Amino acid sequence: MTNTSGEYAKQNFPKQSQPEPGLQSKMSPTPDDGAASYVGHDRLKHKKALITGGDSGIGRSVAIAYAHEGADIVLNYLPEEESDAQEVKGIIESLGRKIKLVPGDLKNEAFSQKLIDEAVSFFGDLSILTLVAGKQQAEVDIANLSTQQITDTYATNVFSLIWLVKAALPHMQPGSSIITTNSIQAEQPSSFLVDYAGTKAAIKNMTMSLAKQLANRGIRVNSVAPGPIWTPLQVVGGQLPENIPTFGQSTPIGRAGQPAELAGAYVFLASNESSYVTGESINVTGGLK
Ligand code: NAD
Ligand code: MG
Fold first, then answer.
1. Region Disordered: what ranges (predicted)?
2. What is the pLDDT of residue 6?
3. Strands, DSSP E only, in 13-98?
4. Ligand with minimal distance to 84 CA
C-alpha cells in the first residue's frame, strides 16, 4: 500500500460493496490499521480505554495504537463484526495488553449503559472514552430518506453519545478524556448525506458544550474530524458506488486516508500531552477544509 518512499500510493480502488456493517477483512485492498507500523512511547501507560466501533476502520487503528501506548482496552462493535473484532483482540493480546470484547447495538439505551457497566467491571474505572462508532448511508433524494434511516443514524451517532457519556461520568476521575468522532461533513456536507452530515455537525457542537460543562471536573472533551478514509463504512452504502474507485482523490493530498493515519490524533487527545486542550476538533482530512 505504500510506495518506495514510504508514502501511501495514489491508486483507484476496485468497485466493491458489502451489506451493513461490513467486514474489514473482506475489503480490497485491506485498510491499513497500523498494526505493523505504529510505534508506542508509553503515552497511555496504566490508562483504561473504552472504544466503540473498534473492530474495523478508524476505531481499530485507534485501539491498536492505544495498546501500543500501554493502555488496556474494552472494545464495542456489532455482533455481525465478531471476526474483525477477534483479529483486533489477537493483535492487542500479542502486545501484552488486556482486552475485553463487548458486542452490542448502541442504538439501544439499555445496552449503552450495560457497555459502560461491563467496562467498569473489567477495569475498575475508566480513563478514556473514545466514541468512534457511526452509521452512514448515502441517499441522493430526500424523497427516499426513510424515517427508519433517520432514526437509526441519529440514534447511533448522536443519542448513544449522550447515553454513553452520562453512564461513564460517575466512573471517570479528573485527568480523564472523552473523544468523539465528527467529520469533514460537519462543515462541508455532501448533497447525498443529509441525515449523516447533520449528526456530525451535532457531534462537533456537543463536544464543545460538554467540554465547557466538564472542564471543572478535570475531564477534557475533544473530537477528531476525519476526511475521506478507506474503511468499511464507505463500501456498505456510505458512499455512492460510482465514487468508490476515485474515493478521496479530490483532496489536496490527492488520495483517501488510511485508518492508521488517524491514530496519532486520537492518541494525542487521550494522553496527558493534551492536558490544556478541550472543546477542540482536529482535522485529519488530507487538506480539505
Ligand atoms: P467502520 O465501518 O470501520 O466503523 C464504524 C463502526 O461503527 C463499525 O465497525 C461498527 O462497529 C460501528 N457501529 C455502527 N453502528 C453501530 C451500532 N448501532 N452499534 C454499535 N456499533 C455500531 O468505518 P469508519 O469509517 O472507521 O467509521 C468510524 C467513524 O469515523 C464513524 O463515526 C464515521 O462517521 C467517522 N468518519 C469516517 C470517515 C471515513 O471517510 N471513513 C470520514 C469521516 C468520519
Ligand atoms: Mg466494523
1. 1-36
2. 64
3. 48-52, 72-77
4. 2
> Does 89 reside within a domain?
yes
pLDDT value at residue 39 = 97
**CB neighbour list of residue 73: distance below 8 Å, 6 or more residues apart:** 49, 50, 51, 54, 63, 66, 67, 92, 97, 98, 99, 100
In a domain, 173, yes or no: yes
16, 33, 55, 58: residue to mutate for ligand 1 pocket, most atoms within 8 A of CB: 58
Radius of gyration of the chain (CA): 18
Residue 61 lies in a domain: yes
Q: Which residues of the chain register pLDDT less than 70?
A: 2-6
Q: What are 213-245's pLDDT values in tens digits?
A: 999 999 999 999 999 999 999 999 999 999 999
Is the distance from the beta carbon of residue 130 to the nearest atom of ligand 1 less than 6 Å?
A: no
Q: What is the pTM of this model?
A: 0.98
Ligand 1 within 6 A of 55 CB?
Answer: yes
Ligand nearest to C-alpha 186 = 1
CATH of the domain at 97: 3.40.50.720
